[in-house]
Design goal:
The chain is of the alpha/beta class and 171 residues long. It has helices spanning 49-69, 90-102, 118-125, 149-170, and strands at residues 12-18, 23-31, 37-38, 41-44, 75-82, 108-109.
Length: 171
């Protein structure tokens, strides 16, 4: 297996904390060098804030490389929202998350990821226009596409192959 360099530091880390809705998590903007940071919102139960931040940092950096290798005019980012313990209002939580995305002024575009759905992204869209993965509308581009296991499974393999190719081209 090839050796990889140390992680590249992110441009911004935004802590998410809205006690009223139960929102707790982080948005990491890893890079906006090629365009707005794009990456999904993961909704998961984490043992600690530190675990959530570590996951978001790793995933955001991966999105930078994934978007660049795909030739997209997008940087990399990721949101990690901690699933609250006990009952919570999912709609209120994702609207609060949408307000956090809106506060970034278009530097980050979110979409569904592990633990989120098109319905969740519709709640986010109540607070910001910087969201993808919404149902197709008549006269609008795009359609619903579920991020699948192939994306997660093959993403790392593609990155490794690309790193090997780049290394060989340099020698």
């Amino acid at each position: 297996m090839p050796e990889f360099s140390a992680p590249v530091p992110p441009e911004e880390v935004l802590r998410l904390d809205d006690p009223q809705s139960g929102l707790s998590g982080v948005i990491v903007i890893h890079s906006t060098a090629l365009g707005p940071a794009a990456g999904g919102c993961r909704f998961h139960r984490y043992a600690s804030d530190a675990d959530a931040v570590t996951d978001a940092l790793r995933l955001a950096e991966g999105m930078s490389y994934k978007n660049a290798l795909a030739g997209l005019p997008l940087g990399g980012g990721k949101a990690v929202v901690r699933m609250p313990d006990g009952p919570f209002d999912r709609t209120a939580l994702f609207r609060a998350f949408g307000r956090a995305v809106a506060s970034l002024g278009g530097r980050y575009v979110t979409a569904e990821d592990v633990g989120t759905s098109v319905s969740d992204m519709q709640c986010v869209a109540d607070s910001t226009r910087h969201v993808a993965g919404l149902p197709a509308r008549v006269g609008a581009a795009g359609a619903i596409r579920r991020p699948g296991p192939r994306s997660a499974c093959c993403g790392r393999w593609r990155l490794q192959c690309s790193a090997i190719w780049v290394r060989r081209c340099r020698t």
